[in-house]
Design goal:
heterodimer; A: alpha+beta; Arc Repressor Mutant, subunit A; Immunoglobulin-like; 3 domains; eight-stranded antiparallel β-sheet; 8 strands; elongated; B: mainly alpha; Rna Polymerase Sigma Factor, Chain: A; 2 domains; 73% helix; disordered N terminus
């Protein structure tokens, strides 16, 4: 597992597509090669194949047209009668035809024609409904996705707004932060602080932390360091983030970033990674 | 209690299916009728779900049972139930026809190819054993998010590939891949919980 760990990370998500037979040819053979060495994916494929095999049991049941059985039986080259549907009709003595019976037959035939017509019509309606249903599902899926994107976009705009408000605040001060030896010699940061509007913080080259640890940002006043919040780094160790700070905060003397337990602490306890003085 | 009854009924019918296939292999026409009477409705419904056309669905059902008649002697019970075999064949025949309808006319799959379908990959864990559990499957599918369900359905009932699904839903490839896997895992958990 250690040997093909990164291959596993890259491929294990394909198990679903594989069991539904939806991988392209080259992806598929790559995944099959991976299966030969990966017990975890093999087990997942096994169980998901069972899930895929269960799907047909959920299809909406439709009655096959009555003539289909005979068509199926014709493939054997011989006919077979359905077990129960055939009932011998009692022989009826022939009766002289009258106009009344003929009229009766005619109206029965008319009814039959009408009902045959309705049957065909209902089949075509059924087909149309099924088609519309699938179209609606697809549109629904797209709509849900669009709504999610709009939510994200709105959040980004709000975020950008609040950043912009801070950056253009009349009382804005800029603080440059330096990476500290020996933990983060290459890191650098910059804070834009407005007492009335909050703080925008940006940094680069922060080293990755081990699990269960997080970077916490502090606004250091003459009295005490006040937590601004936790940094949300991207995988390259970069961050640009806006924080709300209490409006009654005393004038800061410094901005700092420390390493703390995930979730943060009320007062700094860990190593300082970035420090910047406000002159 | 109902579960035991359902399981007993199912294993009875799969034993009976196997016996009917043995009889078909010996040329017994009535055995084919028996299989059709037991499973024709589900097989037809599956073909109709995929093709959404009565006459195409009928053609597929006829092809499936015709192949069952010709290949009954080669049926290997260790590969899975008769019904699973019929449904796999129905899906693949229907999707071939659907693809053919979608424009590019391609040669119909030969029997050797189709014969190879059921034993691809590892054997499946059997989750759902009975058509009587249809409502559980339906509920589980309805419990998925819309995107999970639609992505799975596009792959399963329309035979679309990963890239085609992404294009149809206007989503990135990675999102489709993740949604499909998560959806199937969720179905597995729900179905395992209900069996």
């Amino acid at each position: 597992m250690a040997v093909n760990g990164s291959e596993h990370d890259r491929l294990h998500e394909s198990a679903g597509l594989y069991v539904l037979d939806a991988l392209g040819p080259s992806e598929r053979s790559e995944f099959e090669r991976h299966l030969q060495t990966c017990a975890e994916c093999t087990a997942e494929v096994r169980s998901l194949t069972g899930v895929a095999a269960a799907l047909p049991y959920g299809v909406p049941l439709v009655d096959p047209p009555p003539g289909l059985r005979n068509r199926v039986m014709a493939v054997t080259g011989g006919a077979s009668v359905p077990p129960s549907n055939v009932v011998a009709l009692p022989a009826r003595p022939p009766r002289p035809r009258s106009w009344v019976t003929i009229a009766g037959w005619l109206s029965a035939a008319a009814l039959l024609l009408v009902s045959l017509g309705l049957g065909t019509y209902s089949m075509s309606l059924q087909r149309e409904i099924a088609g519309l249903h699938s179209e609606i599902s697809t549109l629904n899926a797209r709509l849900t996705d669009s709504e999610q994107r709009v939510t994200v976009a709105t959040r980004l705009v709000a975020l950008a707004d609040s950043r912009m408000a801070i950056l253009t605040a009349p009382d804005m001060t800029q603080v440059d932060l330096q990476g500290q030896q020996p933990v983060a010699p290459r890191a650098a940061g910059r804070a834009f602080y407005s007492r009335s509007r909050g703080l925008v913080f940006t940094a680069t080259d922060l080293p990755p932390l081990r699990a269960g640890r997080a970077y916490q940002l502090w606004v250091v006043t003459a009295q005490q360091p006040v937590s601004a919040g936790l940094l949300d780094l991207d995988t390259a160790g970069r961050v640009t983030q806006a924080f709300n700070t209490p409006p009654d905060l005393a004038a800061p003397v410094a901005i700092a970033v420390t390493e703390e337990p995930a979730g943060g602490v009320p007062a700094p306890t860990g190593d300082k990674y970035l420090v910047g003085l406000t002159h | 209690m109902w579960l035991w009854a359902a399981l007993a009924a199912v294993s009875d019918s799969s034993v009976a299916d196997r016996a009917a296939f043995d009889r078909m292999a010996r040329g017994d026409h009535d055995a084919l009728g028996e299989i059709y009477d037991r499973h024709g409705r589900l097989v037809y419904s599956m073909a109709f779900r995929i093709l959404r056309d009565q006459s195409d669905a009928e053609d597929v059902v006829q092809e499936v049972f015709s192949q069952a008649w010709r290949q009954a002697s080669r049926y290997d019970a260790s590969r899975g139930s008769v019904l699973a075999w019929l449904l796999t064949l129905t899906r693949s025949r229907s999707i071939d026809r659907l693809r053919g309808r979608r424009a590019r006319p391609e040669p119909t799959a030969d029997e050797g190819m189709l014969n190879a379908i059921p034993d691809r990959g590892a054997p499946a864990d059997v989750l759902v054993v009975s058509a009587g559990q249809a409502s559980q499957v339906r509920e589980a599918v309805e419990g998925l998010s819309v995107l999970q369900r639609v992505a799975i359905e596009l792959a399963f009932y329309e035979g679309l590939t990963h890239a085609e699904i992404a294009e149809r839903l206007e989503l990135p490839l990675g999102t489709v891949k993740t949604r499909i896997r998560q959806g199937l895992l969720k179905l597995r958990d729900r179905l395992a919980g209900s069996v």
